[in-house]
Structures are given as structure tokens and as C-alpha cells.
Amino acid sequence: MIYSKNISVLSIMIVGLLTYNCARQTADEIVVYENDFERDLIDAYQRVDSVNTSFDQISENYFHFNGSRNLGRFDTGGIILDLEGLPEHQWLRISFDFYVHDNWEGNGLRGNGEDVVIFNVDQLNLHFSSIVNTGCIGQDCDAVQSFPNRIGEGQNPENAGVINDELPGVCHFEGQVGGTKLIKFANRVPHGSTTVRVNIAAGIKDAGTDLCLKSWSIDNLKISTISLPENQ
Asked: Residue 2: which H helix or E strand, with range?
């Protein structure tokens, strides 16, 4: 019985050591900013020293869609989010929902340039990608886009990279299933500074002052810092 007890104690010590080592090997991820836009921007969850939000070609505005309140709608331009006082880290994880509303024209269907989504972190451009929305559902559509690739790096069908292609349109495709498409961005980027600038924007053509032909909005913006184990 003494031998069995010693084996049992030894087993517990080994399990504890392995658990400790596994914990040491796990990256530490801290959510530093999160906003579902159900309240004003100032009420966003944040664990940083300061947050500054600026807008290009639109004042702070909200848009109720699909049972949620989004930030938008936007045309050309977008949002710049500056965070200061980030904890020590080696990576950032940034995710958000991007809604493509109504008639986006992809790879220059009118011959005068693309409708593009733009996503920058500091000076790093993660996306400059054309997106098309003709209201088509599925992958058997005639129109093409570069997304999820950059412009010039791929020809993909409408709805490539889209997680929901059956949302209703807002104005030009009002009530039409497929009139809005949902894309979820989730990028992990190398980063170590205590500050970061996140730019989510678009370059879309002829949206009109009423944004009826085309527009976009975002929801569920989340930014996390990731710290790697000491031996990595």
C-alpha cells in the first residue's frame, strides 16, 4: 500500500508539472477593445489607456440591420480607430463583421474601376480587394471579384469569402434575398508597439448621397493582444 501511495503522489506531481508546462506553452490573449455598436462608441469595452475614433466623409452614425445595430452605413471612406497603451505583446488579432449592402460592382464592370474594401493596421495593408454583389446567391454567378485576394492577385466568383449570401438588400436591392452579403474578417498580424491604428474603409463608385445604390457597415469589432510564451 505504501508503494501504491507513492506511485499515486508521483503521478499527481507529473500531471501537475505537465499542466504547468502546457500553460507556459499557451499564448496569452487579452481583449483590449470590443464593440458591438449596440451603444455609443464611448461605451465600448476597452482595456487600454485611450481610444480615439475618427470618420472619413461621414459623422458617427448607426444603422439597424438584421436584428442588430451596426456602425454605418458608409460610402467611400470609413473609420480610423487609434488605441494607445496596449499591453506587451507580439501579435494582434483583429476581427469584425463587414456587410456589403446592395450593388457593388467588383472588377470594374462599368469599366471605371473597382468597388473595393480596404483594411489597414498601422502601415500594413491587409486588404485592398474588389467585391461584387449583384444579388446572386451561391458560387454559380457570372460576376467576379478579387476578394479574398488583393486586386490583381486572383479572379474569384461572387460570394467568395462570404459567410452569408442570403441577407436582404437595403435600398437598391431592398427586400431581395442576396441583396446584402456578410464577410467576417479575422486577421492575426505581427505587432509590438503600445499604439495601433486600425483603418476599415472602402472605395466605392457612385454610391449617391442617399447611399441607395451601394453602401457598407460593420459590426462586432474586436481587437486582442497576443503574447507568446517566453521560450518562443
From this structure: helix 2-25
Cα separation, 7 vs 1, in Å, equals 10
Note the pLDDT tens digit of each residue in 10-29.
Answer: 454 444 444 445 445 688 99
Domains observed in the chain: 29-227 (2.60.120)
Rounded CA separation 36/192 (Å): 26
Task: Give every CB contact of residue 19 below 8 A, 6+ residues apart in sequence.
Answer: none
Residue in 201, 212, 135, 141 with CA at minimum distance from that of residue 170: 212
Q: Are 74 and 59 in contact (CB under 8 A)?
A: no
Of 198, 216, 189, 213, nearest in space to 117 by CA: 216
Model pTM score: 0.85
